[in-house]
């Protein structure tokens, strides 16, 4: 079966699908933790005095998910606009429709999956990706070169931390727009439905623009070795800059790091970053690591990378499916065992979270593979969005 899968038409870039599949697997781990280890709460930045090292680094691993996925969305948009062995095609309309489709999914199907009912409408990562795609659509419609788009992206990513001191109250002019762009918070608190902007979108717009800017590296005219070297250069440069900015607490993170009583706690303090909105240090770490992984996945042929590639070819299907499976399993386990962790059902130890994630990855592989094959042969434009 694996040999048959390897004969699939590789018009898609395998390294992108493998990396996307990797972050989907890590995302599953984080969502299993949120569903079955929620009785051990953590914040972002994480309270290192109240959090074990194992839980800290489990959560930190999940930090890769959103930045890498948004970055790859921008990169994939460039690939869509420049299909292999074909003339370039307009991408603005596709990005606009795809962005609106993602927002619709966020406020309907995805929000329902968190609790099984509507009480608060959370505008989270899919919403942020949708808004970012619409913004990229506008810039492409203006016929800006990928260089200008990249410069705007760099300006946003490197500059948005200067906006941290700006804070508006709910009764002040511009509060709604500022909450959506930079400060997470509630847009509506009265009535039958509350609305919370959980993912401030401004930094994510910068990330998708940077992904689009990197796209030309994946032109068929660019040798693989050259692309690998450039991606390694981008990754190491981002991590080197992080070491300088974070090491001397110069810029890029609102929470300074400090030496702690133990080495492991000092490391935790160094890597304890703000996610909402994602700080510059947070993005330097995650995008830097993402670029190094992209380079590494260029030539790997392990069986487990083929499994990850399968997840990466049907990310939205995997995303929605795993959310509803987790919701269903949680309700079943509550019905059987009750809420034995205070007001929640949960696992006693973190290793159970990891084990349960591995089991779910095996279970989810087969329907995802089926849908990936179905999508590849389908002529439906709606199916292609998944």
Describe this structure in words.
This protein has 386 residues and is mainly alpha-helical. The chain has one domain (2-384). Helix content is 63%, strand content 3%. It contains 16 helices and three strands. The chain has helices at residues 2-6, 14-36, 53-62, 65-81, 92-115, 125-141, 146-159, 175-181, 202-214, 224-247, 263-270, 280-296, 303-313, 315-337, 350-377, 381-384; strands spanning 120-123, 185-188, 194-197. A three-stranded mixed beta sheet has the order 1-3-2. Strand 2 and strand 3 form a beta hairpin. Helix 2 (14-36) packs parallel to helix 14 and helix 13 (303-313) packs across helix 15. The longest helix is centred in the C-terminal third of the chain and has 28 residues, at 350-377. Residues 1-10 have low confidence and may be disordered.
